[in-house]
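From the pipeline queue, job 12 of 40. The input is one protein chain; the requested action is below.

Action: predict structure.
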Amino acid sequence: MAKAVTLPWGDGTLELMLPDSCRILGELVPQPMEPARPGACSVALSNPWDTQRLASRDLRDKKIVVVVDDHSRPTPVATFLDQILDEIAAGGAADKNIRILVAIGVHRPSRSEEIESKLGTEIMNRFSWSCHDAYDPDGLVELGSTSRGTKVVLNKLLLEADLIICVGSIEPHLLLGFGGGLKMIIPGCAGAETIGKNHLQGVDPDSFDYVGVRGDISPMRLDLEEGAALLSKDIFVINVAMNEHARPTRFFCGDPIKAHRAGEAFVESAARLEVHEQADIVLTNSFPMEFDLRQSVKCLGNTLYACKPGGVMMACAKAQVGLGEMPLPKKTLPYGVMRGILKIVGKGGVLPLVKKAKKGEPVEEVFIGHFGLQMLRRNHLGIYCDSPLLPNDIGRKMGLAKSFTSREDFMSWGASRAPKRATVWVFPFGGSTYARCV
C-alpha cells in the first residue's frame, strides 16, 4: 500500500504517493512563528541596532533612496512600507526628496502591476520610483574594487543620496548563506559585471552550497559588504524575518551589519532543520518560494545535505509564472551522459567545464551552471512541475535534471533510482527552510 504525502501547493495542496517499501524518516517543518502584530515595524524602528533612530534625525532637505526587493521575492513590502515612510517623515523628510529604487539585480524590470503589488497603490502613485538597470552605463558609477577583486559599479542614485534605506527579507540563500542586509546594494543595485564577480566568490568545489552559513564566514557576503562600504554613505537596513507562509514575524532595523547578523541568528533558529542521518531520497517542496522556476528550484539546494551522496533529490517546483530569469543553455547533453561526464571530471573539474561551455556568456551563468552541475554530480535530480507556462521537457532544456508533469511518473522515477527499502526525508517548506546533517 502506498504512503501519501501532502504538500502545500499554491493556494491548495499537492498529494504524492510513496511506495509502501519506503521508510519516511520524518516531515521536517520550521519552528512555528506567529505573524507579527500590526505596527511591529514601527516598534523595531523606534529601537534600531547600533544607530540613531530615523525619526530623531534631521532629514530636512536630505535626499533619501529607499531600496526594496523586486517582484520575484515574497517580501510583503506593501504591508509595512507606510510605517517606514511615517518614520522618516517624522524626521522631516519631504516626499519630493524620497526616491524608491527597486533592486532587480539582473532580473527583468518589474512590471507596473508588480510595482503596485510590491509598494501598494497609494505609495506607488505618491512617490517617484524606478527599477535598477544593471546594463545601463549612464545609470552606473564605478567606485573601485574590493580586496577579492570585485570591481564595484553601482546605481548612481545611491551616490546622489544622503541616506539609503534597504528594505528586504532574510531567508536561506544558496551562495550567500542568508539573504538580506547589504545584498540590496550588491547584487541588487550593481552592474552586471559586479554581480557576476561577487557571486563567483561562492564558487568553491568543496563548499559550493553555502545555505545557512553566517555572514562572517560567507565569502560572497563579506565581499558585497566591503563593496557597499565604498559608497561611504549612511545606510540603514530594515529586514524582515518571515514564517513558512511568507508572513512577517520579526523586524531587524538599524546598522546594516549588526541588524543583519541579529536577523540571521533569528532565522537560523527557525529555518535550520537538523537531520540525524542522510536519506536515500529527499522529497522537497518549493513553498513559499513559488514565483518562478529560478526561485522554486532553490528548495533543492536548501535541502541537499539531508540526502546521501548518490541519493535522489526530488523537487516539487510550483513556478507560478513559469521560467522567470532562469537562463537556459543553448545546448545540453542527455541526463545520463551529463552525470557520467561529471563523475569523470570530479568536483574540481566542474568549474573549468562550465567556463568552457559558457565562454563568452554573462558571468552570472557561470555560477548558476557550477552550482547546478555540482548538485547533479553529487545526486540524481528530479523536478515535478505542473505549470502550463513551462515546456514539458524543461529538465532537458536546463541540462541539470529529469523533469515530470505526471506525479505518478515522477514518483516512479525517484523510486527506481533508490534502494527498495529507501529512507525518505520530506520538506514541505523547502523554499524557506534548509537542512543540516548532525
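Job complete. The mean pLDDT is 93.
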